[in-house]
C-alpha cells in the first residue's frame, strides 16, 4: 500500500444539507475530523483534491440547489486550484467528465471519503474500481444513516456502513483507515 505523489483525494458531498436532522441517526461522529486530517495532509503535500457537490433534481432533497443545504460546509470549502465536480446522481463519474479529467492529469490512484457510505461513496468507488483506478475508501472518513432494507427490516447506520464497505473491499476498492493512509 503506497500512496502516490499524485493520488487524488475525492471528498464527496460535504455540504450543509448532510447535517440536516431529517436524514436521521448517523454513525461515525469523527468522520469529519478524519476528512479534515486527510485534506490537511493533501494540501500540505500538494496532492490533487477533488470536491464533489451534489445538485439534486428533487425539491425535497437537502441538496436542492435553491437552498443553503447545497452549499459546502465552511470547513470543506474548495481552495484555489482544487477541482469541483458537480453531480446529479450518486456516482461522481456519471455525466461529470471526472474520468477524462483524471486520465488527462495522469491520476490513477483515488482515495474516497465523504457521504453517504452506502450511497454516493459506494457508487463512486464501484465505478472507480470498474474503470481500473486504484481505489481506496477511508472507512473512518465516511458515514451513513440508519436504513431499512428492501424487506422493511431496520438496520443501524453502523450495520449499513459495514455492509457497504464489505461490498466494496477486495472487489472494487481497498478499504483502509485514515491512519493507514497517513
User: Class, according to the CATH hierarchy?
Assistant: Alpha Beta
Give the structural class.
alpha/beta
- As residue ranges, the low-confidence spans are none
Give the number of DSSP strands. Answer: 8
Mean pLDDT: 97
Please tell me the CATH architecture by its name.
3-Layer(aba) Sandwich
Fraction in beta strands: 15-25%
- As a whole number of angstroms, the C-alpha radius of gyration is 15 Å
Rounded to the nearest angstrom, the distance between the terminal CA atoms is 11 Å
The proportion of residues forming helix, as a percent range, comes to: 25-40%
What is the fold named in CATH at topology level? Rossmann fold
What is the count of DSSP helices, taking H or I runs of 4+ residues?
A: 5
Globally, the shape reads globular
Biggest β-sheet strands, sense, barrel: 6 strands, parallel
Q: How many independent structural domains?
A: 1
Sequence of strands across the biggest β-sheet? 3-2-1-4-5-8
Can you write the helix and strand succession as a string?
EHEEHEHEEEHEH
Query: At the fourth CATH level, what is the homologous superfamily?
Result: Isochorismatase-like
Keywords: Hydrolase
Protein name: Cysteine hydrolase
Pfam family, one: Isochorismatase
GO molecular function, one term: hydrolase activity
Structure in a nutshell:
With 182 residues, the chain is an alpha/beta fold. Helices cover 29% and strands 22% of the residues. The strands form 2 sheets. A 6-stranded parallel sheet has the order 3-2-1-4-5-8, sandwiched between helices. The chain has a two-stranded antiparallel ribbon with strand order 6-7.
Amino acid at each position: 500500500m503506497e500512496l502516490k505523489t499524485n493520488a487524488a483525494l475525492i471528498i464527496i458531498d460535504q455540504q450543509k444539507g448532510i447535517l440536516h436532522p431529517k436524514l436521521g441517526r448517523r454513525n461515525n461522529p469523527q468522520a469529519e475530523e478524519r476528512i479534515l486530517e486527510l485534506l490537511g495532509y493533501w494540501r500540505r503535500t500538494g496532492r490533487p483534491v477533488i470536491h464533489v457537490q451534489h445538485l439534486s433534481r428533487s425539491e425535497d432533497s437537502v441538496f436542492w440547489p435553491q437552498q443553503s443545504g447545497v452549499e459546502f460546509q465552511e470547513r470543506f470549502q474548495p481552495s484555489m486550484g482544487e477541482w469541483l465536480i458537480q453531480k446529479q446522481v450518486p456516482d461522481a463519474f456519471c455525466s461529470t467528465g471526472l474520468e477524462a479529467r483524471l486520465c488527462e492529469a495522469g491520476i490513477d490512484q483515488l482515495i474516497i471519503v465523504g457521504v453517504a457510505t452506502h450511497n454516493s461513496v459506494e457508487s463512486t468507488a464501484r465505478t472507480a474500481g470498474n474503470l481500473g483506478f486504484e481505489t481506496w475508501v477511508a472507512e473512518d472518513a465516511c458515514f451513513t444513516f440508519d436504513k431499512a432494507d428492501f424487506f422493511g427490516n431496520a438496520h443501524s447506520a453502523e450495520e449499513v456502513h459495514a455492509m457497504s464497505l464489505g461490498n466494496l473491499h477486495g472487489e472494487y476498492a481497498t478499504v483502509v483507515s485514515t491512519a493507514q493512509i497517513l
